[in-house]
């Protein structure tokens, strides 16, 4: 996807999604966990009708980001996803605090046919949508069909997988896939795969309702502007009622205003995005300031794409040497003030299957290994290597990362390697990545759903390739142009494999191919931070990166 994906999705420059790419870009120093799309909206004054500590039981949240749309068939940024997660329900969700997939609007996990193509799902019969429409299999089939047919940004997630969606009973949904896909139940937990009312929505290309939502969840949308978003409790919700009386989200135009408003008690919660210095200050003052610091990991990965179309990156020894040059602990210390974690596989460490393959193979800043590999590739001080690293010009963070890498590499390999740091406007950069213009690009990736496949297929697979280069497909779009028939076979195998052990072995083999062939170099994962005033309870970022607003309460 040549797109900017953000927690709140500032929507005036969210690029159209291609069906194999979901890249996250960054602008601010702490816009690291979820990308900040260009543009901004809103004012910087606390909401007069919802101050922190208000006795009506509502909770106020401040952020610097906004939502482009709340139409589940078109929302493909992270914050609209979080809003939809709280405004709607899904067939399957995750048990809070875990990565255990459990039924939500379904009553059981699917029954899967022997060929892995037909999923039969029993549904709840006690659910009513926000407009009073009864929920049933027809409503769910309509919602899935609309998601696939209306042509929104995430449409391909289902349309590439599902052949038919049918109500085979009042409360029985049958989904037939085009090819077997082991991660399908996890895909059905995607925030946009939520039932919406056939009375309020229609199927039709480009037919979207960006500023409203009529679904089944614990909150109803009661306000949606560029300044604020207001969620009221749904009194007719079929499940447990929220622990609060509603949520008021205020949009700030700068981290400084968000930081100052929270510090002075004008907000209950601050979430996204604060600069590292502000995060560090709030951590230092936690005991005396009257607030809590909630730290969590993320599933966003940050990496280098190495373009094998450009000499000398077509030489695997050069790519391996670059992997050995990267000093991740140095990046964490100098760039992120400890607010990140080194990443040694494209699969985040939150997955048990993730292995630190790059650490084992190349270490951190192992310049002796890098020198040996470069010598084998024919480079010397008489014939030095020049590396060109590109990043989007609006990203202060990536600028610091690129220049820190330049300083470290040139100091570690004097006279042997020169690093050139380049940037261009974000839209231009992401438009041209798939054209093979840039040798090395700093990029990042936010998963669509919680499964290792989302960190494998978009990077290692290729639909059409020859001469060891991808001509069309995911790895071409991601800028590496990696092509391996063996990798394609392993990707297809792990997608179709229903045996968990066999699937894990295929994923392990793919991680080994990543480290052997080095089409990408994993760099870091950010930590996620939420700040809450004392007395605010139930604030947590889920392992799947969701933010469950209904759990938040006043102590």
TrEMBL record:
Question: What UniProt keywords apply to this chain's record, in alphabetical order?
Answer: Signal, Transport
Domain Solute-binding protein family span(s) in chain numbering: 101-466
Under the heading SUPFAM superfamilies, the entry gives: Periplasmic binding protein-like II (SSF53850)
The record's annotation in Gene3D superfamilies points to:
Dipeptide-binding Protein, Domain 3 (3.10.105.10), Periplasmic binding protein-like II (3.40.190.10)
Q: Name one Pfam family in it.
A: SBP_bac_5
| Superkingdom of the source species | Bacteria
Q: According to its UniProt record, where is this protein located?
A: Cell envelope
Q: Does the keyword Transport apply?
A: yes
Quote the InterPro entries the UniProt record gives: Peptide/Ni-bd (IPR030678), SBP_5 (IPR039424), SBP_5_dom (IPR000914)
Q: Does the keyword Signal apply?
A: yes
What protein family is recorded?
A: Belongs to the bacterial solute-binding protein 5 family.
Protein name per UniProt: ABC transporter substrate-binding protein
Species name for this entry? Leptolyngbya subtilissima DQ-A4
């Amino acid at each position: 996807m040549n797109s900017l994906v953000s927690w709140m999705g500032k929507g005036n420059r969210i690029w159209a999604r291609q069906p194999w790419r979901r890249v996250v870009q960054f602008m601010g120093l702490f816009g690291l966990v979820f990308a900040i799309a260009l543009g901004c909206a809103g004012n910087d004054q606390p909401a007069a009708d919802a101050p922190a500590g208000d006795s009506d039981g509502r909770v106020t949240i401040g952020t610097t980001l906004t939502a482009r749309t709340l139409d589940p068939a078109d929302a493909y940024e992270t914050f609209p996803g979080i809003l939809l997660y709280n405004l709607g329900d899904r067939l399957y969700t995750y048990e809070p605090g875990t990565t255990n997939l459990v039924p939500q609007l379904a009553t059981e996990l699917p029954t899967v046919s022997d060929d892995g193509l037909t999923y039969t799902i029993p549904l709840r019969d006690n659910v009513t949508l926000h407009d009073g429409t009864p929920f049933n299999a027809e409503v769910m089939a309509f919602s899935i069909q609309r998601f696939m047919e209306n042509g929104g940004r995430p449409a391909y997630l289902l349309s590439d997988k599902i052949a038919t969606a049918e109500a085979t009973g009042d409360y029985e949904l049958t989904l037939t896939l085009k090819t077997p896909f082991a991660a399908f139940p996890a895909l059905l937990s995607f925030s946009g795969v939520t039932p919406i009312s056939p009375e309020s929505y229609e199927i039709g290309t480009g037919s979207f309702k960006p500023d409203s939502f009529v679904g089944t969840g614990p909150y109803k949308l009661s306000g949606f502007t560029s300044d604020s978003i207001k969620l009221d409790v749904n009194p007719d919700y079929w499940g447990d009622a929220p622990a609060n009386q509603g949520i008021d989200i205020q949009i700030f135009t700068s981290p400084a205003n968000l930081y100052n408003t929270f510090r002075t008690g004008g907000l209950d919660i601050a979430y996204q995005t604060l600069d590292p210095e502000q995060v560090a200050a709030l951590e230092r003052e936690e005991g005396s300031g009257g607030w809590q610091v909630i730290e969590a990991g993320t599933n966003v990965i940050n990496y280098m794409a190495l373009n094998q179309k450009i000499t000398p990156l077509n030489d695997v020894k050069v790519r391996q040497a670059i992997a050995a040059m990267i000093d991740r602990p140095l990046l964490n210390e100098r760039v992120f003030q400890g607010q990140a974690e080194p990443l040694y596989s494209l699969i985040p460490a939150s997955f048990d299957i993730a292995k630190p393959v790059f650490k084992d193979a190349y270490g951190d800043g192992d310049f002796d290994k890098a020198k040996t590999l470069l010598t084998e590739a024919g480079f010397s001080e008489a014939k030095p290597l020049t590396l060109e690293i590109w990043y989007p010009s609006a990203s202060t963070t990536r600028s610091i990362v690129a220049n820190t890498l330049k300083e470290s590499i040139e100091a570690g390999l004097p006279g042997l390697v020169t690093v050139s740091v380049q940037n261009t406007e974000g839209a231009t950069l992401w438009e041209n990545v798939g054209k093979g213009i840039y040798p090395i690009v700093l990029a990042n990736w936010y998963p669509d759903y919680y499964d290792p496949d989302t960190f494998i297929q978009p990077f290692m697979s290729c639909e059409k390739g020859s001469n060891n280069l991808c001509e069309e497909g995911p790895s071409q779009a991601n800028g590496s142009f990696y092509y391996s028939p063996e990798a394609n076979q392993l990707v297809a195998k792990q997608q179709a494999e229903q045996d968990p052990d066999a699937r894990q072995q295929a994923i392990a083999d793919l991680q080994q191919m990543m480290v052997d062939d080095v089409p990408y170099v994993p760099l870091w994962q950010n930590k996620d931070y939420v700040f809450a005033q004392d007395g605010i309870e139930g604030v947590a970022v889920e392992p799947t990166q969701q933010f469950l607003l209904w759990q938040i309460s006043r102590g």
